[in-house]
Structure formats: structure tokens, C-alpha cells
Amino acid sequence: MDGNRDVINGLMWLLLCQVAGEVVVRLVGIPVPGPVVGMVLLFGLLQWRKPAPAAGVFRAGDALLRHLQLFFVPAGVGVVTYLAVVRDDALPIAGALVLSWLAGLLVVGWLVTGLRRG
Amino acid sequence: MSETLEWMRTSPVALVALTLLAYRIGCEARDRSGGHALAQPVLVAIVLIGVVLWAADIDYSTYRPGTELIAFWLGPATVALAIPLHRQFARLRGVLLPMLVAVPVGAATSILTAYALVRLLGGDDLLATTMAPKAATTPVSIALSEVAGGIPPLTAVLAIAVGILGAVIGPVVLTIARIRDPRARGLALGATSHGIGTSRALAESEEEGAFAGLSMGLTALATSLLLPVLLVMLRQL
């Protein structure tokens, strides 16, 4: 597969990793999404095989990641269904969203900075 | 005539075309505004499609299955997050240990504060569960919300909202907090604002963007592993 530039070949590897991830999740019964296990499997494969930079798996993967936003538009449009929920629970939704985001940002930023010094 | 209109309102071809058109307009808006933080293609597309669905009286229950063809690619795209991870692996040395501590702690912080704050501010368990995986990249947060018993489409909307929040005010907040190391800034943005935050980090510097992408992938993994455990603990309080 090294150096193979075929995008279909690349898509095949992405889908095979996803299938393998889904199978692992079902066999082991872990509450992790299949594609995340697939991501770990692909990472292991890439580190092991070190395909050429022009390999199909990179071209297919980069193309998908470039338009990652597009793939969650159908789910995002679901907000029209939940407009009433968002209106009724505006305070817990907006308050928790902003404060929790801020807490996560500062914790990660300060931890990385502090641990690098220490 | 009415039969043709009915076909337009329910055909997957028309609904997928509408989605691609709205996304393209969103990309155009981003490029023409010079990458303005608010001109996120996903936000523009959602608003435009929402207006069209409302005007044409199309239910979300018709729209969503019609656009399954687009949502399908969330899975392979999530698998593809291994690629930036693979490329940046060599540049990790200096921050490997800090990162391996900070990312799981950050993921736990995001889950715990999201759940606790929703409950404290008067929301119910369903809403808190829906909010809990919001820091994971959207395809992962949708899947996690489904497994945990939340409302996946609402989780997606919340994840997109924290992404936009990170793109708009993330860099300013990091500067005020005196977090200047581009690797620390990238890791923080990726851990809380996934793909949309990563695109903003890339605009600051390539190094910051690379670490944001790495952080996004690791946060997705950490959130997947931590969420089920933390939710059990939180619900027993």
C-alpha cells in the first residue's frame, strides 16, 4: 500500500479501520464510539507502515478533514427541533456552556505551561 | 405541479443539494470576510437551511434521513483524525508529559463542570447528560451523547457553539490568562473547541494549529473513556 496514490484505496483503509473499530467496540462492550477506536487503529497503522506523503490514505483523509464542518451540518440543523428547549432552558444552557468552556481552556493552558516549567 | 413540489420537499437529492449549496455559501462568506471568526461555514449553513426548512414547511424528521449520505462521512472523518496525529508525533518531545496530564484533566474538567453547572442552574439530568460531551469533536460528541442517553442533535449544536466561542474569544482569553507558548495555546483551544477552534489556532500559527488538532483527537479519546465513568459518579451524588 506504500506510495499508492489511489484515493479509493485510501477511503478503503479509513472505512476498514472504522469497521474494525466498530467490531472491537461490540466484542469488548466498551462505551467508546467505533470511529474513535478506528482512529487509534489507523494511528498505529500509520506509525508502523509509514506510507509515502502522497499515499491515498492521506489524500482521502485530508480531503475529509478539510470539510469536516460539512459533515455535521445535518446534525446541527437539528437545532430547529430544539429551539423550544433552548428557549426554556436558556440560563443553564448558556451559563454552563460558557463557564465550562472557560474552565477547560484555562485548566489545559495553565497545566501545560506550569508542567513545562517544572 | 404540486406533485413536483412534494418531490422537491422530500427527495434526498434535493435535500443533499440544499445542504451542499448552503455550506458552499458559508465557505464563500468565510473567504470574502477574510476569515472572520463569526463567518463559520457550518453556522451559516445551519441558519440558511433552517430558514429554508421553515419557509418550505419541511420537518427535521424529513430532512435528517434525506441527508444521511452527508452525515455518513462523520465516521471516516473521525478515523482520519489519526493523520494530523501521525504527522505531529515527532514534534511532541518537549510537551509529551504535560500534554498527557493536561488533556485528560481538561476533558474531565469539561465533563464535570458542564454537568454540574447545568444542574446548578436548574437544568435536568437529560440536559446535563446532553451537555457533558460538548468538548469532544462533534462526530464523537454525537456518538457519546447517544450512548450516554442524551439528545445527540442538541449535543451537536452545543459542540458547534463551544467551537464558535473558541474561535471568537479563545485567543483573547488565553492572552489575558498569560498563556503564551503556542503549544499550550493550541492544546487548550483543541481541548475545548475541537475543529472550529483548531481552524482559528491555525490562523495564529502553524505550530499552534498542529497542537490544537492533536489535542482535539486526544480530547475525543479522553472524553470517550472518561464520560461513562464520570456520569455514573455524578448521578450518584
TrEMBL record, chain B:
Q: Mark the transmembrane ranges.
A: 6-25, 37-56, 62-83, 95-118, 154-174, 209-234
Q: Which UniProt keywords apply?
A: Membrane, Transmembrane, Transmembrane helix
UniProt cross-references to InterPro entries, sorted A to Z: CidB/LrgB (IPR007300)
Question: Would I find DNA repair among this entry's keywords?
Answer: no
Q: Which domain of life is it from?
A: Bacteria
Q: What is its main location?
A: membrane
Q: Which GO terms describe its cellular component?
A: membrane
Where in or outside the cell it occurs: the entry states: Membrane
What membrane topology does this protein have?
Multi-pass membrane protein
Signal sequence, renumbered to the chain: none
Keyword Flavoprotein appears in the UniProt entry = no
Tell me what this protein is called. Answer: LrgB family protein
Q: What is the lineage of its organism?
A: Bacteria, Bacillati, Actinomycetota, Actinomycetes, Propionibacteriales
